Amino acid sequence: MDLATLWFGIIAFLFVGYFVLDGFDFGVGMSLPFLGKDDISRRQIINTIGPVWDLNETWLIVAGACLFASFPEWYASLFSGFYLPLLLILLALIARGVSFEYRHQGRSERWKAGFDRMIIIGSAVPAFLWGVAFANIVRGVALDEQHIHVGTVFDLLNPYALVGGLTTLLLFFTHGVTFVALKTDGPLRAEARRLAFRAGLLTLVVAAVFLAWTVLTHFSLIVLALAALAAVSLVLSLASNLRDREGWAFTFGASTVLFAVVALFAALFPNVLPSTIDPAFSLTVENASSTDYTLQIMTWTALVALPLVLLYQGWTYWVFRKRVTRVSIEGAPAHA
Protein backbone atom coordinates (compact mmCIF):
# COMPACT_ATOMS: atom_id res chain seq x y z
CA MET A 1 0.00 0.00 0.00
CA ASP A 2 1.44 3.39 -0.97
CA LEU A 3 1.21 6.43 1.29
CA ALA A 4 -1.50 8.14 -0.75
CA THR A 5 -3.79 5.12 -0.35
CA LEU A 6 -2.91 4.92 3.35
CA TRP A 7 -3.95 8.53 3.84
CA PHE A 8 -7.18 7.98 1.95
CA GLY A 9 -7.88 5.32 4.57
CA ILE A 10 -6.93 7.67 7.41
CA ILE A 11 -9.23 10.39 6.06
CA ALA A 12 -12.02 7.79 5.90
CA PHE A 13 -11.26 6.77 9.50
CA LEU A 14 -11.43 10.38 10.70
CA PHE A 15 -14.75 11.04 9.00
CA VAL A 16 -16.13 7.76 10.36
CA GLY A 17 -15.14 8.90 13.85
CA TYR A 18 -16.71 12.29 13.29
CA PHE A 19 -20.02 10.94 11.98
CA VAL A 20 -20.29 8.28 14.70
CA LEU A 21 -19.57 10.75 17.51
CA ASP A 22 -20.96 14.08 16.32
CA GLY A 23 -23.76 12.13 14.64
CA PHE A 24 -25.39 11.27 17.94
CA ASP A 25 -24.79 14.87 19.09
CA PHE A 26 -26.89 15.99 16.13
CA GLY A 27 -29.56 13.44 17.00
CA VAL A 28 -29.70 14.56 20.62
CA GLY A 29 -30.14 18.17 19.51
CA MET A 30 -32.89 17.26 17.05
CA SER A 31 -34.73 15.26 19.73
CA LEU A 32 -35.51 18.34 21.86
CA PRO A 33 -38.96 19.11 20.36
CA PHE A 34 -39.97 15.43 20.62
CA LEU A 35 -38.63 14.53 24.08
CA GLY A 36 -38.25 17.85 25.88
CA LYS A 37 -41.64 18.07 27.58
CA ASP A 38 -40.47 20.57 30.21
CA ASP A 39 -37.34 22.50 31.09
CA ILE A 40 -36.06 19.73 33.36
CA SER A 41 -36.23 17.12 30.60
CA ARG A 42 -34.69 19.52 28.08
CA ARG A 43 -31.79 20.19 30.44
CA GLN A 44 -31.49 16.46 31.01
CA ILE A 45 -31.27 15.86 27.24
CA ILE A 46 -28.70 18.61 26.68
CA ASN A 47 -26.58 17.45 29.62
CA THR A 48 -26.17 13.98 28.06
CA ILE A 49 -23.77 15.53 25.55
CA GLY A 50 -22.68 18.56 27.57
CA PRO A 51 -19.25 17.17 28.52
CA VAL A 52 -18.42 15.66 25.10
CA TRP A 53 -20.00 17.60 22.21
CA ASP A 54 -17.02 19.93 21.69
CA LEU A 55 -14.58 17.01 21.88
CA ASN A 56 -16.62 15.18 19.23
CA GLU A 57 -16.42 18.19 16.90
CA THR A 58 -12.62 18.20 17.01
CA TRP A 59 -12.74 15.12 14.74
CA LEU A 60 -14.01 17.40 11.97
CA ILE A 61 -11.18 19.87 12.55
CA VAL A 62 -8.58 17.11 12.45
CA ALA A 63 -10.20 15.53 9.36
CA GLY A 64 -10.24 18.88 7.56
CA ALA A 65 -6.61 19.63 8.46
CA CYS A 66 -5.45 16.19 7.34
CA LEU A 67 -7.44 16.48 4.13
CA PHE A 68 -5.80 19.84 3.38
CA ALA A 69 -2.29 18.49 4.03
CA SER A 70 -2.60 15.09 2.37
CA PHE A 71 -4.91 15.87 -0.58
CA PRO A 72 -4.69 19.62 -1.31
CA GLU A 73 -6.31 19.29 -4.76
CA TRP A 74 -9.27 17.42 -3.26
CA TYR A 75 -9.57 20.00 -0.49
CA ALA A 76 -9.47 22.93 -2.92
CA SER A 77 -12.04 21.44 -5.31
CA LEU A 78 -14.37 20.55 -2.44
CA PHE A 79 -14.35 24.02 -0.96
CA SER A 80 -14.83 25.70 -4.32
CA GLY A 81 -17.66 23.42 -5.42
CA PHE A 82 -19.34 22.92 -2.04
CA TYR A 83 -18.80 26.42 -0.70
CA LEU A 84 -22.43 27.23 0.20
CA PRO A 85 -23.30 23.88 1.87
CA LEU A 86 -20.06 23.91 3.87
CA LEU A 87 -20.67 27.52 4.89
CA LEU A 88 -24.18 26.64 6.09
CA ILE A 89 -22.76 23.69 8.05
CA LEU A 90 -20.18 25.98 9.68
CA LEU A 91 -22.78 28.59 10.64
CA ALA A 92 -25.07 25.90 12.03
CA LEU A 93 -22.25 24.42 14.13
CA ILE A 94 -21.40 27.88 15.47
CA ALA A 95 -25.05 28.53 16.37
CA ARG A 96 -25.29 25.17 18.12
CA GLY A 97 -22.06 25.69 20.07
CA VAL A 98 -23.12 29.17 21.20
CA SER A 99 -26.48 27.78 22.33
CA PHE A 100 -24.90 25.12 24.52
CA GLU A 101 -22.80 27.76 26.25
CA TYR A 102 -25.41 30.52 26.62
CA ARG A 103 -28.70 28.69 27.16
CA HIS A 104 -28.19 28.42 30.92
CA GLN A 105 -27.10 32.06 31.29
CA GLY A 106 -30.68 33.36 31.26
CA ARG A 107 -33.63 32.44 33.46
CA SER A 108 -36.58 33.36 31.24
CA GLU A 109 -38.42 30.72 29.22
CA ARG A 110 -38.22 32.93 26.14
CA TRP A 111 -34.42 33.08 26.43
CA LYS A 112 -34.13 29.30 26.76
CA ALA A 113 -36.65 28.59 23.97
CA GLY A 114 -34.67 30.77 21.56
CA PHE A 115 -31.45 28.87 22.21
CA ASP A 116 -33.31 25.56 22.07
CA ARG A 117 -34.43 26.43 18.54
CA MET A 118 -30.82 27.24 17.64
CA ILE A 119 -29.73 23.83 18.97
CA ILE A 120 -32.41 22.07 16.92
CA ILE A 121 -31.63 23.94 13.70
CA GLY A 122 -27.89 23.80 14.35
CA SER A 123 -28.17 20.02 14.61
CA ALA A 124 -30.60 19.32 11.75
CA VAL A 125 -28.85 21.44 9.10
CA PRO A 126 -25.43 19.71 9.33
CA ALA A 127 -27.08 16.28 9.68
CA PHE A 128 -28.85 16.80 6.35
CA LEU A 129 -26.13 18.69 4.46
CA TRP A 130 -23.35 16.24 5.31
CA GLY A 131 -25.37 13.53 3.61
CA VAL A 132 -25.95 15.76 0.59
CA ALA A 133 -22.24 16.59 0.40
CA PHE A 134 -20.95 13.02 0.66
CA ALA A 135 -23.56 11.68 -1.75
CA ASN A 136 -22.36 14.24 -4.31
CA ILE A 137 -18.73 13.33 -3.64
CA VAL A 138 -19.52 9.70 -4.46
CA ARG A 139 -21.78 10.58 -7.41
CA GLY A 140 -19.34 13.11 -8.87
CA VAL A 141 -19.55 16.78 -9.76
CA ALA A 142 -18.84 18.92 -12.82
CA LEU A 143 -15.04 19.15 -12.77
CA ASP A 144 -13.25 20.49 -15.82
CA GLU A 145 -9.77 19.51 -17.04
CA GLN A 146 -8.19 21.84 -14.45
CA HIS A 147 -10.18 20.18 -11.64
CA ILE A 148 -12.29 23.30 -11.18
CA HIS A 149 -15.94 22.88 -10.29
CA VAL A 150 -17.98 24.49 -13.07
CA GLY A 151 -21.45 23.46 -11.89
CA THR A 152 -23.89 25.40 -9.72
CA VAL A 153 -25.16 24.82 -6.20
CA PHE A 154 -28.45 23.58 -7.68
CA ASP A 155 -26.55 20.70 -9.33
CA LEU A 156 -25.83 19.43 -5.82
CA LEU A 157 -29.56 19.11 -5.12
CA ASN A 158 -30.01 16.03 -7.28
CA PRO A 159 -32.27 13.11 -6.22
CA TYR A 160 -29.42 10.84 -5.10
CA ALA A 161 -27.92 13.57 -2.92
CA LEU A 162 -31.27 14.51 -1.39
CA VAL A 163 -31.93 10.88 -0.46
CA GLY A 164 -28.43 10.79 1.02
CA GLY A 165 -29.18 13.89 3.09
CA LEU A 166 -32.45 12.42 4.32
CA THR A 167 -30.62 9.20 5.21
CA THR A 168 -28.02 10.92 7.39
CA LEU A 169 -30.68 13.13 8.97
CA LEU A 170 -32.78 10.13 10.04
CA LEU A 171 -29.79 7.95 10.90
CA PHE A 172 -28.25 10.58 13.17
CA PHE A 173 -31.65 11.31 14.72
CA THR A 174 -32.16 7.62 15.59
CA HIS A 175 -28.56 7.35 16.79
CA GLY A 176 -29.00 10.38 19.04
CA VAL A 177 -32.36 9.33 20.51
CA THR A 178 -30.82 5.94 21.34
CA PHE A 179 -28.04 7.80 23.16
CA VAL A 180 -30.65 9.76 25.16
CA ALA A 181 -32.25 6.46 26.21
CA LEU A 182 -28.81 5.14 27.19
CA LYS A 183 -27.90 8.19 29.27
CA THR A 184 -31.16 9.14 31.04
CA ASP A 185 -33.68 7.60 33.41
CA GLY A 186 -37.37 7.57 34.21
CA PRO A 187 -40.07 8.66 31.77
CA LEU A 188 -37.56 10.35 29.45
CA ARG A 189 -35.64 7.10 29.03
CA ALA A 190 -38.80 5.15 28.20
CA GLU A 191 -40.06 7.77 25.74
CA ALA A 192 -36.66 7.98 24.04
CA ARG A 193 -36.62 4.21 23.63
CA ARG A 194 -40.05 4.25 21.96
CA LEU A 195 -39.10 7.16 19.71
CA ALA A 196 -35.83 5.48 18.70
CA PHE A 197 -37.73 2.40 17.53
CA ARG A 198 -40.29 4.39 15.51
CA ALA A 199 -37.61 6.59 13.95
CA GLY A 200 -35.46 3.53 13.30
CA LEU A 201 -38.16 1.89 11.20
CA LEU A 202 -38.36 4.94 8.94
CA THR A 203 -34.56 5.17 8.86
CA LEU A 204 -34.35 1.53 7.80
CA VAL A 205 -36.53 2.16 4.74
CA VAL A 206 -34.80 5.36 3.61
CA ALA A 207 -31.28 4.04 4.28
CA ALA A 208 -32.06 0.84 2.37
CA VAL A 209 -33.06 2.90 -0.67
CA PHE A 210 -29.89 5.02 -0.49
CA LEU A 211 -27.52 2.10 0.07
CA ALA A 212 -29.17 0.03 -2.66
CA TRP A 213 -28.85 3.01 -5.02
CA THR A 214 -25.17 3.31 -4.10
CA VAL A 215 -24.51 -0.41 -4.62
CA LEU A 216 -26.25 -0.44 -8.00
CA THR A 217 -24.34 2.59 -9.32
CA HIS A 218 -20.94 1.69 -7.80
CA PHE A 219 -21.13 -2.06 -7.61
CA SER A 220 -18.37 -4.10 -6.03
CA LEU A 221 -18.43 -6.98 -3.59
CA ILE A 222 -16.86 -4.79 -0.91
CA VAL A 223 -19.50 -2.08 -1.26
CA LEU A 224 -22.26 -4.70 -1.26
CA ALA A 225 -20.86 -6.38 1.87
CA LEU A 226 -20.50 -3.07 3.73
CA ALA A 227 -24.02 -1.98 2.79
CA ALA A 228 -25.37 -5.33 4.00
CA LEU A 229 -23.48 -4.98 7.29
CA ALA A 230 -24.93 -1.50 7.77
CA ALA A 231 -28.46 -2.83 7.23
CA VAL A 232 -27.95 -5.77 9.60
CA SER A 233 -26.49 -3.46 12.27
CA LEU A 234 -29.50 -1.17 12.07
CA VAL A 235 -31.91 -4.11 12.42
CA LEU A 236 -29.94 -5.39 15.43
CA SER A 237 -30.05 -1.90 16.95
CA LEU A 238 -33.84 -1.85 16.66
CA ALA A 239 -34.10 -5.36 18.10
CA SER A 240 -31.85 -4.45 21.04
CA ASN A 241 -33.94 -1.37 21.67
CA LEU A 242 -37.09 -3.49 21.87
CA ARG A 243 -35.41 -5.62 24.52
CA ASP A 244 -34.46 -2.53 26.59
CA ARG A 245 -30.76 -3.06 25.87
CA GLU A 246 -29.77 0.53 25.19
CA GLY A 247 -26.03 -0.17 25.32
CA TRP A 248 -26.24 -2.75 22.55
CA ALA A 249 -28.72 -0.61 20.62
CA PHE A 250 -26.30 2.31 20.67
CA THR A 251 -23.34 0.08 19.75
CA PHE A 252 -25.16 -1.38 16.76
CA GLY A 253 -26.34 2.12 15.80
CA ALA A 254 -22.74 3.33 15.81
CA SER A 255 -21.81 0.29 13.71
CA THR A 256 -24.51 1.25 11.22
CA VAL A 257 -22.98 4.69 10.76
CA LEU A 258 -19.50 3.16 10.54
CA PHE A 259 -20.38 0.62 7.84
CA ALA A 260 -22.45 3.13 5.85
CA VAL A 261 -19.66 5.73 5.74
CA VAL A 262 -17.01 3.14 4.91
CA ALA A 263 -19.28 1.87 2.11
CA LEU A 264 -19.34 5.39 0.63
CA PHE A 265 -15.54 5.67 0.75
CA ALA A 266 -15.22 2.19 -0.77
CA ALA A 267 -17.60 3.20 -3.58
CA LEU A 268 -15.52 6.34 -4.15
CA PHE A 269 -12.06 4.70 -4.28
CA PRO A 270 -9.73 5.10 -6.20
CA ASN A 271 -11.34 8.44 -7.03
CA VAL A 272 -11.61 11.18 -4.44
CA LEU A 273 -13.88 13.42 -6.53
CA PRO A 274 -15.20 12.03 -9.83
CA SER A 275 -15.97 14.32 -12.75
CA THR A 276 -19.38 14.05 -14.39
CA ILE A 277 -18.04 15.88 -17.47
CA ASP A 278 -15.31 13.39 -18.35
CA PRO A 279 -13.85 10.59 -16.20
CA ALA A 280 -10.39 11.72 -17.34
CA PHE A 281 -10.94 14.97 -15.39
CA SER A 282 -11.61 13.14 -12.10
CA LEU A 283 -9.48 13.65 -9.03
CA THR A 284 -7.97 10.38 -7.87
CA VAL A 285 -5.96 9.23 -4.87
CA GLU A 286 -2.80 9.55 -6.96
CA ASN A 287 -3.25 12.88 -8.77
CA ALA A 288 -4.76 14.72 -5.77
CA SER A 289 -2.23 13.73 -3.09
CA SER A 290 0.70 15.62 -1.64
CA THR A 291 4.33 14.62 -2.19
CA ASP A 292 5.68 11.44 -0.63
CA TYR A 293 7.87 13.49 1.71
CA THR A 294 4.86 15.37 3.07
CA LEU A 295 2.91 12.14 3.52
CA GLN A 296 5.86 10.52 5.30
CA ILE A 297 6.04 13.34 7.85
CA MET A 298 2.26 13.19 8.36
CA THR A 299 2.38 9.42 8.82
CA TRP A 300 4.94 9.60 11.63
CA THR A 301 2.95 12.40 13.26
CA ALA A 302 -0.25 10.38 13.04
CA LEU A 303 1.43 7.34 14.59
CA VAL A 304 2.18 9.41 17.69
CA ALA A 305 -0.88 11.66 17.87
CA LEU A 306 -3.80 9.38 16.96
CA PRO A 307 -3.34 6.85 19.80
CA LEU A 308 -3.10 9.72 22.32
CA VAL A 309 -6.28 11.30 20.98
CA LEU A 310 -8.15 7.98 21.13
CA LEU A 311 -6.95 7.31 24.68
CA TYR A 312 -7.97 10.78 25.86
CA GLN A 313 -11.39 10.55 24.27
CA GLY A 314 -11.96 7.08 25.68
CA TRP A 315 -10.99 8.32 29.14
CA THR A 316 -13.41 11.26 28.83
CA TYR A 317 -16.33 9.00 27.97
CA TRP A 318 -15.42 6.71 30.88
CA VAL A 319 -15.41 9.63 33.34
CA PHE A 320 -18.85 10.81 32.16
CA ARG A 321 -20.34 7.34 31.72
CA LYS A 322 -23.12 7.68 34.32
CA ARG A 323 -26.73 8.44 33.46
CA VAL A 324 -28.03 11.99 33.70
CA THR A 325 -30.89 11.55 36.15
CA ARG A 326 -33.91 13.79 36.57
CA VAL A 327 -33.19 14.04 40.29
CA SER A 328 -29.72 15.44 39.62
CA ILE A 329 -31.18 18.09 37.31
CA GLU A 330 -33.93 19.04 39.76
CA GLY A 331 -31.36 19.43 42.51
CA ALA A 332 -29.13 21.70 40.40
CA PRO A 333 -29.55 25.51 40.23
CA ALA A 334 -32.25 26.61 37.79
CA HIS A 335 -29.70 28.33 35.53
CA ALA A 336 -27.34 25.30 35.33
TrEMBL record:
One of its GO terms (biological process) is aerobic electron transport chain. Its EC number is 1.10.3.-. It is a multi-pass membrane protein. It is found in: Cell membrane. The chain crosses the membrane at residues 6-32, 77-98, 119-142, 162-183, 195-213, 219-238, 250-273, 293-312. InterPro entries: Cyt-d_oxidase_su2. One of its GO terms (molecular function) is electron transfer activity. Keywords: Cell membrane, Electron transport, Heme, Iron, Membrane, Metal-binding, Oxidoreductase, Transmembrane, Transmembrane helix, Transport. GO terms for cellular component: cytochrome complex; plasma membrane. Belongs to the cytochrome ubiquinol oxidase subunit 2 family. This is Cytochrome d ubiquinol oxidase subunit II. It comes from Microbacterium ginsengiterrae.
